[in-house]
Amino acid sequence: MSLDQLCTQPIIETDRFVLRPVRKSDVGLISHYASEERVARMTSRIPHPLPPGAIEAFVERAMADNRDEYVWAIDGTRDGGPELQGVISLDRMDRGQSEVGYWVAPVFWNTGLATEAVRALVDGNPFSDATMFASVFQDNPASARVLIHCGFEYLGDAETFSVARDANVATWTYSRKL
């Protein structure tokens, strides 16, 4: 794996894909995949149905110079795959900590892509974090397995509001010391 710098956000390369900053040309594929109810319901922030302009605004925020959340596209063109297979992010916190968030398009579920993407982000540790956190909905054990396979340890239960569900949803919270 190599780590290259593009502006303030690193590019993380693996044999299977590249984690690269999202760009305006990603709006179409992000909209296509994020509008899928199965994707939106497993995130806290993606509304369902998607309102007009939501993904454009998301990409603009992700590209802003003053952002706290760094968003990468999982770009599979290196391995002959599509330009966007999912999204992974680090939401910067204080004291050398970040929160990991991710989703993968349903067509790539059960392929190990999410595990590889989280592992690449953890191994690359682009911001030299001391700790990374992540939360998953308790009705999404596959995402919990991704975190466990990447060395995250269970911290406890909590709940988070899901925009798509319009409700608080029980979560499992994990951390990884780096």
Q: DSSP helix count?
A: 5
What is the first-to-last residue Cα distance? 17 Å
Largest sheet: 9 strands, mixed
Q: How much helicity do the residues have?
A: 10-25%
Low-confidence stretches: 1-7
Strand order of the largest sheet: 1-2-3-4-5-6-7-9-8
Radius of gyration: 15 Å
Number of strands: 9
Mean pLDDT: 95
Strand content: 35-45%
Order of helices and strands: EEEHHHEEEHEHEE
- Broad shape: globular
The helix/strand class is alpha+beta
Describe this structure in words.
With 178 residues, the chain is an alpha+beta fold. It is 24% helix and 36% strand. The chain is built from five helices and nine strands, in the order E-E-E-H-H-H-E-E-E-H-E-H-E-E. Strands 1-2-3-4-5-6-7-9-8 form a nine-stranded mixed β-sheet, with helices on one face. A hairpin with a 2-residue loop joins strand 1 (2-6) and strand 2. Residues 1-7 have low confidence and may be disordered.
Key terms:
alpha+beta, about 180 residues, 9-stranded mixed beta sheet
Quick recap of the structure?
This protein is of the alpha+beta class.
Set out the fold topology.
Blueprint: E1 2-6, E2 9-13, E3 18-21, H1 27-34, H2 37-40, H3 54-63, E4 69-75, E5 86-92, E6 97-104, H4 113-124, E7 131-137, H5 141-149, E8 153-162, E9 167-177
Parallel strand pairs: 6-7
Antiparallel strand pairs: 1-2, 2-3, 3-4, 4-5, 5-6, 7-9, 8-9
